[in-house]
Amino acid sequence: MPKFTLDISDAAVDGLQAVVARYNADNGTALTVLDWLHLHAREIAVQDQLLTAAQSLREQADKDADAAFKAERQRLLDSVA
Question: Checking CA distances to 64, which of 8, 32, 34, 80 falls within 20 to 30 Å?
């Protein structure tokens, strides 16, 4: 597996620690800065697939919502026939 080394300043580490603390609080995780960087590097590697999946899921949700609306509309119309 390839290995990368990253040199960053103390100020950058301080900033990253604040971001990671906020991320951990928002997501119920306890990631270290290194774990967070690793996670986000992997997310960037799959972002195109993730965006495609998100679009597909949104389209399906819209279709499902439209079908549910039409069914409810018909049910209500039938209830007053």
Answer: 80
